[in-house]
Design a protein that fits this description.
The complex is a heterodimer of chains A (282) and B (277).
Chain A: H1 2-41, H2 47-51, H3 65-96, H4 100-113, H5 117-132, H6 137-162, H7 165-173, H8 178-189, H9 191-206, H10 210-213, H11 233-242, H12 246-280
Chain B: H1 10-16, H2 19-23, E1 31-40, E2 43-53, E3 58-62, H3 69-76, E4 86-94, E5 97-98, H4 106-112, E6 113-116, H5 127-138, H6 146-156, H7 160-163, H8 176-189, E7 194-198, H9 206-219, E8 224-228, H10 232-238, E9 241-246, E10 249-255, H11 256-261, H12 266-272
Parallel strand pairs in B: 3-8, 3-9, 6-7, 7-8
Antiparallel strand pairs in B: 1-2, 1-4, 4-5, 9-10
Helix pairs in contact in B: 5-6, 5-8, 6-8
The chains are: A mainly alpha (282), B alpha/beta (277).
Bound molecules: adenosine-5'-triphosphate and magnesium ion.
Chain lengths: 282, 277
């Protein structure tokens, strides 16, 4: 009997150790990336980095203000397009999507979710850039929104499905019409999860490069015109990192650090929203 | 009324039933089912249930677990509309009109028929908002009257004293019994005509149970009440009529006194005397 207890104890210890080692490996990767970025990029981050646009190749100085603002605009616009459509689709799937249409929508969302982002970029190029004869930030936002919508639809659906059926019934029994029940009770209850899903989705598209190559294209000058090519941090990193100049490499590292920081901030906000939600209301 | 709630035993009940009800074999029923059958997919849960539920009285539905009491109760306010694979035959009438008639407005039907579920299901909102939910939607109360209405409903549900200082706390933070009374208050605030209660006291202590029973006796002046209960004493104490369900059949239905003292069916007698179920 005590032998069995000992064995159980040892097995428990061994499993815990394995899990700890594996988790540490996962965290280590993140720490290495962050550490490397800070080592190589932090020294290049100064006031000019955030406020100045790039200077001609080969010269030193200048910053990536155009790319930072560009990322903000492109991603913001993508969220503006993608969040309402994605969340509405998810709500539809969860609440009304048991029929054939729901099956089709869900299937399409899953296929889209697995589509390489560069393919989405090419599609946006084919249907927006080519007909309008011009690269534009708007085309980039649309491409990113297309990436985002299936993600949001599926996470929203999951979150809404977590809302207990009994809550739906309580609202219906009070004489709430079904659509109102969906919005006022079901969506409200799932709101924390939905917001988190949106933030995670935004964090994911913020770092996308491939879809922007064919759409927003990049722009070495400062621009806020969404009908014109626009720079983004990811495009900037791509161009600078593959360029021949030492100065460019330096700025690429710094841009990568800023982008990483941005994504981190969004993710932490997402965690915070989740905690707020479930901390307050059990 | 509340003070003599305790005396609403067998004899008290008999006295409280108006003579007209006792003379007439069948007072005009508010809710009536005719050869009502119900299926969950292939599971035939209700067989030819025919029952006339009289107005301004408490009707208790009793029977062993899984016999279709909840299924029948949920049929009355069409809660099964969203149950996948659910099917029915026969008819249920509310004030003489079929609730399944094409063009029936389910939303207004449910406003007229309030329901308290077997398991407490408060919204993840404040205690106050939980109760205010119905009146707010149905725009029955001016915003100024809302606090009064909420307080009245909470008092009726015997919950006011416990929550009056924590109206802003989430309803889900209350104890199980308090949650159930919150759900009762929520249903009452909507001022329905018929009140369906599915084992409302199963999570309550004897004191809260007694207060709910007093409430029901009080409410039957204005409401028609159908209550599912596993508690024989409760059925005998508060109800005017009793229906006994057994494996999907309504085996017996009649005045509570008759059902409990002179049951017609052997199975009713066996159940009531505790020989099975
Ligand atoms: N949602 C459902 N889907 C399929 N079958 C169901 C569903 N709900 C109930 N049933 C079945 O219908 C029958 C009647 O169930 P019901 O819930 O009406 O019983 P009940 O008399 O209320 O029991 P209890 O006293 O335990 O609450 C049971 O056989 C049950 O398994
Ligand atoms: Mg039941």
């Amino acid at each position: 009997m005590s032998g069995r207890a000992l064995r159980r104890h040892l097995a428990s210890r061994a499993m815990t150790a394995v899990v700890v080692v594996l988790s540490f490996t996962a965290v280590l990767a993140l720490l290495l990336i962050l550490g490397d970025l800070v080592l190589k990029g932090a020294s290049s981050i100064d006031w000019a980095f955030f406020t100045k646009s790039p200077v001609p190749a080969g010269q030193s100085g200048g910053g990536v203000a155009n790319a930072i603002v560009g990322t903000g605009i492109i991603v913001g616009l993508a969220a503006l397009i993608g969040v309402p459509i994605g969340v509405a689709a998810g709500l539809y799937l969860a609440e009304y999507g048991s029929g054939r249409l729901g099956f089709v929508v869900r299937f399409i969302a899953d296929v889209l979710n697995g589509t390489p982002s560069i393919v989405v970029g090419i599609v946006a190029w084919t249907f927006i850039v080519r007909p309008t004869h011009g690269y534009s930030a708007l085309a980039g936002s649309v491409a990113l929104a297309i990436l985002m919508i299936p993600m949001l639809a599926r996470t929203t659906e999951e979150m809404v499905r977590l809302v207990p059926h009994s809550l739906r019934e309580a609202a219906l029994a009070l004489g709430y019409p079904r659509w109102r029940t969906s919005l006022k009770i079901v969506a409200r209850t799932a709101l924390g999860g939905i917001v988190t899903g949106c933030l995670v989705g935004i964090a994911r598209i913020a770092g996308e490069t491939a879809p922007l190559l064919f759409t927003a294209l990049g722009n070495l000058n400062f621009s806020v015109d969404i009908t014109q090519p626009m720079q983004s941090l990811s495009l900037q990193i791509y161009v600078y990192a593959t360029g021949p100049f030492e100065e460019w490499h330096r700025l690429a590292w710094a841009s990568a650090l800023v982008l990483m920081g941005l994504v981190l901030i969004i993710s932490i906000t997402a965690r915070w929203v989740t905690r707020q939600r479930y901390g307050r209301i059990r | 009324m509340a003070s003599d709630g305790r005396s609403v035993g067998r004899s008290g009940r008999t006295a409280s039933v108006s003579p007209t009800v006792r003379q007439s074999d069948s007072p005009t029923p508010v809710v009536e089912s005719r050869a009502y059958n119900f299926w969950y997919g292939a599971n035939h849960a209700l067989h030819d249930v025919t029952i006339a539920i009289p107005p301004h009285a408490i009707t208790a539905l009793i029977g062993p677990s899984g016999c279709g009491k909840t299924t029948f109760l949920r049929s009355i306010n069409r809660m099964h509309d969203l149950t996948p694979g659910a099917r029915h035959a026969g008819d249920i009438l509310l004030d003489g009109g079929s609730i399944f008639a094409p063009g029936t407005d389910v939303v207004s039907l449910r406003r007229r028929i309030g329901m308290v579920f077997q398991r407490p299901n408060p919204f993840p909102k404040s205690v106050y908002d939980n109760v205010a939910y119905g009146p707010r939607l149905n725009a029955m109360a001016a915003p100024r009257e809302l606090p009064d209405r909420v307080e009245r409903a909470l008092r009726q549900a015997a919950l006011w004293d416990e929550v009056s200082s924590r109206l802003r706390e989430p309803g889900t933070a209350l104890s199980g019994g308090q949650q159930q009374r919150l759900c009762i208050a929520r249903a009452l605030a909507n001022e329905p005509e018929v009140l369906l209660l599915d084992e409302p006291c199963s999570a309550l202590d004897p004191i809260a149970t007694q207060r709910i029973e007093e409430l029901l006796v009080e409410l039957k002046k204005t409401y028609t009440i159908v209550i599912v209960t596993h508690n024989m004493q409760q059925a005998a104490r508060v109800s005017d009529y009793t229906g006994f369900f057994y494996v999907g059949h309504l085996v017996e239905f009649g005045e509570t006194e008759q059902v409990f003292t002179r049951p017609i069916d052997d199975r009713t007698e066996a159940y009531i005397t505790g020989r099975f179920g």
